[in-house]
Amino acid sequence: MKLRTLVWRELFERKSQMLTCFLAIFLGITTVVAIKNVTYYSEKAVAREMDSLGANVLVLPKSTTLQDYYSADMHDETIPEEYVMRLTMSEIQGVDNLSPKLCVPVDLQEKQFALTGILPKSEFQAKAAWGGAGIFSRPIGCGAVDMGDEPEPEDKRTLVRKRVIKDLDSHEILIGPDVASSQGLKEGDSIDLLGESFSVIAVLPETGTVDDSRIFAHLHTVQRLSGKGPVVNCIEIVGCCEEISAGLVGNVNKLLPDAKVVTVKQVVATQQNVNHMMGRLSVIFLAIIVVVGGAGIANYMYANVFERRREIGTLMALGAESGLVLRIFLAKALLVGLVGGIGGFVIGTVLAVTLGPKLAGVPVLPMPVLALWAVGISTGIALVASYFPARRAARLDPVATFQEV
Amino acid sequence: MYKRELVFTVILVVVACGLLMATSRQAIAQTNQGVRAASAATPGKEQGKGMAAINAAAKEGKYLFFFFWKEKDKQTDAMHGVFQSAMQKWAKSADSIAIQITNADEKPVVDKYGVSRAPMPLVVAIAPNGAVTKGCPLKFDEKKLAEAFVSPATAQIMKALQGRKLVLLCVQNQKTQFSQDALNGANSFKADKRFAKSTEIVTVDPANQAEATLLKDLKVDPRTSQAVTVVLAPSGQPLATFAGPVTKEQILAKIASASSGPCAGGKCGPGGCGSKK
Of the four, B9, B48, B174, B195, which is 20 to 30 A from B205 by CA? Predict the structure, then answer.
């Protein structure tokens, strides 16, 4: 009789027990694969978000409650615009760039968009050089070097990444892709906003955030049209990372005691906490698979070997060697583990891809590397748990088993 | 007859009140030197006293200190006291003038320095060459104001940087080696039409004691035996320092690496420039 036939028959000998063991491994692997897959893409989304933001510190009115970074300026509370100059002229180290914002709603063809006032860099950057004696010994910025009047015209679309542009005239606007598509606007077109005509100088690239439905105009124009005076809803600061660690937020807080200063890390802290919790959860599930699945398989194998010792003895009396018996049981365990691992990976991935976007709010793609991980874990557990029962079967004395008959 | 006297008295009171208000406003609006500076140049109505004071100070080779204020309050009074006391000490080297930013006549100077939305009170110091050498908002003391006095080369550099220009600072004299090579490199960079308009070359003698602080800030040894070239970007960031001869290509390479560094834009996310944990 061939090994393959023996293993196949052995597999279906105790169907219900075998199914229980298989399910323990399969469900465990399914859960861990799904959690790992969603966590990976969620962490990646947070990292990408933080990196693509550029700005990493927000200055907000004290009473503001912050739900989302991108809509940090969408509230009615304001802070004085003079805070921008206080920051620019201060000796605080590590402030690389600033972007004050004032947001007011505007209706265009019965659709509401956010008209966001921004201050071009040219209107405040020179004041950073009002530092007096010793200005050259202070570290300024953290890599974003201003090369002065560059020969190439500025690409305004970099606003999305850099959070600030160099120049913007009082009646120029930049529009998000949603505004462009819904209003049928393109570069060079004109549009009326709050009773004045503006020309579209750039359509911003898609970001998947609320920025897509924004219209960016000069801060002072937005202040005038909305009648809000010299105020802003928030100031985004591109802070140098090392300086943030060294207490930039505390220093800004000291300079602007009437404002709330938060880092983007704090904003995304909730999402990061969920990710960490999911990570810990996957470790717990892994432990459950090892304990429950492993113990289940070991128990099933031991019981199987004990119940079928006479059959094993007969097989050995017919000439089967210990090695063959060992291989039969280990191959059976390998098959259970392999099928459980592959099945767990497939179903776990399907669950992650379909439920992930709804649960974590991020697009989730299959991760082939998890297949190796799933199969490795499941077969490893099955083999380790089956090794001792299999060795016991291989060491059975056929004579002793016949004596029991 | 009685009516006429009454009208006359009312007019007299109104005129007296007007004069009194104007005098008190002038007290804060013009310090001793400011009065002199403002009156030295007869201001055109469209210019305002502030713009005239700039021209007068520049003509005399003096610094000009503006005291910008918005409304009379405790903070403004206290800082104006500090300002006046300092200005009296520096009368020989600096003129001063107080400007209320809401005064429509002074709009040109308020717009020139973009201080209409600045925290007030604010002192802005202008060097004789027109560079803003210090801005002190809200709270300051004499020591802070004194930081406005900078060396001639520093003022020249600041003026260029505030005009959004790159500065090539050539530290050299007849004794330093490779002086001509370094200067040729700087000139060759400026000759490139991409950078011609946005580059300024400033030369400093390392033996000049007046420039010792500038050299110390830029970490250049004043006893250097070789010419040193420092590249500065707005708003005062030293990008590179070359000792000895330098070529246009070397300067370009340093600028390119500085503007495309891994931290450009302040990336703090994983894999960015944040602290590695």
Answer: B195
